[in-house]
Task: structure prediction
Amino acid sequence: MKLFASLASPYTRKVRVVLAEKRIDCDIELVDVAPIDNPVNAHNPLGKIPTLLLDDGTALYDSRVIVEFLDNASPISRLIPEDNRERVAVRRWEALADGVLDAGLLVRMEALRPKKEQSKAWSGKQLARMRRGLAQLGAELGERPWCHGERYTLADIALGCAIGWLDFRKPSEVDWRAEYAAIARHHDRLMERAAFADTTPR
Result:
């Protein structure tokens, strides 16, 4: 298998953490998807990363699809529960963490536009989404060691990657360590795992 990736991408990081936890060997090809014509287009019509190219030539895209495939590819360290209610609960965590990321990335992209073209209203709307999402994630996490149930799951990976991106980009508008203590504790716990420490964005 080959993963088209960027070391700075939080969605790529989610897949890389899952690969490490599942002990699945996979080639990684670092790509720049900023140009309209980029190497991923031949495998993913959206030209986005992460994209996973399977041995038979099939391409999988969207980190949520890829991690589900990987979790079922090996019985080691199951990250998504088999029980329907439990599985949906973990995927709900993932969706919310990814939603915080989506909003954060939109804020960053807006800030990179020429100053006169930037919209404070647009950025404010995305920041509000980020804050609501982080508040919900922190409230549900509370004092528990793991996001869902009594063990480490994809929910923890998704939250860890979202917060890792905030730690990497350090947006001035959100001081997540000061504002969301439960999430800060969770992030520190995750960084003790090799899969997280070895995939720090850069």
Summary: The mean pLDDT is 96. The first strand starts at residue 2 and ends at 5. The two ends are 23 Å apart (CA to CA).
